[in-house]
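Narrative progress, year one. The postdoctoral researcher (J.K.) led the effort to move from monomer predictions toward full complexes, under supervision of the PI. The following entry was the first complex the group processed end to end, covering 425 residues in total.
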Amino acid sequence: MIFDVDALLNSLPTMGWGMLGIFMVIGIIMLIIWILGKIFPVKKEDNKDKN
Amino acid sequence: MEQLFSNLLSIDWSTQWKMVIMWIIGGVLIYLAIKKDMEPALLLPMGFGAILVNLPFSGAVTQGAEEGPIDVLFNAGIANELFPLLLFIGIGAMIDFGPLLSNPKMMLFGAAAQFGIFFTLSLASFLGFEPKDAASIAIIGAADGPTSIFVSQFFKSNYVGPIIIAAYSYMALVPIIQPAVIKLCTTKKERLIRMPYRPKSVSKTTKIIFPIVITVVAGIFAPKSVALVGFLMFGNLIRECGVLNSLSESAQHELANLVTLLLGLTVSTKMQAEAFLSWNTLMIMGLGLIAFIFDTAGGVIFAKILNIFLKEKINPMVGAAGISAFPMSSRVVHKMGLEEDPQNFLLMHAAAANVAGQIASVVAGGLILTLVQV
């Protein structure tokens, strides 16, 4: 088995950017959900649909 | 008579013992599917396929110039990433994003619980796997079969077979893996935290616009994930639009079943003894387990960090449901909550984190495709 320390060090930025990227995208999605909730509040028909 | 047995007599069993091992592996997969009810829709066709492609001179796979039907299916449906995408339409049609839309902060757990993917990417690189293989192995941590197939096939990984087996096996083992990791990362006091459920109503318009907007956002930030996200969200749109109920039903049942059936059988072409039986397969199974463990730990520890700042505490077990294995993970968390306190109902919180994990795992797949240069 080979232990490739260089490859490990090279992959660390990918780990950092990956986690940062995923939190960024998820943050934006959360913001969109909040905005959608404000723009399109629940109407009476929606509640009727539920019933 | 001699002609009838010529095939049998021409087999050199001293070199074909690996095939016999593959029959045993196929038998074990079929046993797990039938007796233990572990992802039977996939493990059973895969188990049968493992036997089918490992018969001497099997006509199911390509032999010389003669193309085998399993290889034809592989080229038609997996090599071009078509089957996983079609399956995503069905999965999208099955998912109700309602609990998530009414409690969007649960999305954060979907992100945190992808930590195992990126941790495993580094670990696999350290163990000497090429970047394309390390990335493909890491995506086992997405806890999402179609994403694993899509990414490993995109990178043309040498280990598509073991990666898919690991992804589906560990998804089936979520009820065993997750409780152990959750207990290791939490105290009894933390597991007893109650979370009252106060759902906010979500308008029908929001539910319809949500899948469209998510597709656009994913397309802008992780363009390579747009096929995965887009097909998932298209499935969800036909569910939520309210005018395509028949298509939604077909996507959830007929389409998903048909693709699953073909997917399981077709994947077996990558389970031919010569390629499958290697030390690397064992390493991939180990790395897949590590990815699941660190996903779970990532979600739980993130919840514990959030609790430092929150007035109304979150039960850290909910963080573990941020992995994509839907709906097993949310059921596991709910059951663990009830075991600790029969009045603690965590299901809706866990379900929200779990569907967030579905979105986050696909986004993580797209980020891996973007960030890993091969």
